[in-house]
Design a protein that fits this description.
129 residues; globular; 26% helix; six-stranded mixed β-sheet
């Protein structure tokens, strides 16, 4: 789920996983909201649920195609976008210890590398729409 907002430039909401501590910077340390589907749960419902659970946000989640995600044969990834406003309040779950609104150039911290590439790809598509 790529949650974005429009400021001077587009920004993406990144969450830091609390599992390995506040200094952790390895694979999956910084991600956008997301997670696994419950048995029988449609992808769109899972996206909205995970967004609400992890951030407290209730936004419209729209599916978006990602060539980067589709190329990851070992993962089953459904990609969604949701637009936030400057007034939206983030309430983190225990899964995350902090968040940041990041610019496109800041997405290299999202590892493995294809994850940051996917976020940039989606952000570029949002910016063109």
């Amino acid at each position: 789920m790529v949650v974005w907002r429009r400021r001077a430039e587009l920004e993406v909401l990144l969450l830091h996983r609390s599992l390995f501590g506040k200094d952790f910077s390895g694979d999956w340390a910084w991600t956008t909201p997301g997670g696994a589907r419950e048995p029988g749960e449609p992808p769109a419902a899972a996206a909205a649920r995970e967004l609400s659970e992890e951030t407290g946000l209730s936004l419209v989640c729209r599916p978006v195609r990602s060539a980067v995600a589709e190329a990851q044969r070992e993962f089953d990834v459904d990609v969604f976008v949701a637009e936030a406003t400057a007034d939206d309040t983030i309430r983190l779950s225990d899964e995350h210890d902090r968040y940041q609104w990041a610019r496109r150039d800041d997405l290299d911290r999202c590892q493995p590398a294809w994850v940051g590439q996917m976020y940039r790809e989606v952000l570029d598509a949002v910016g063109e729409a």
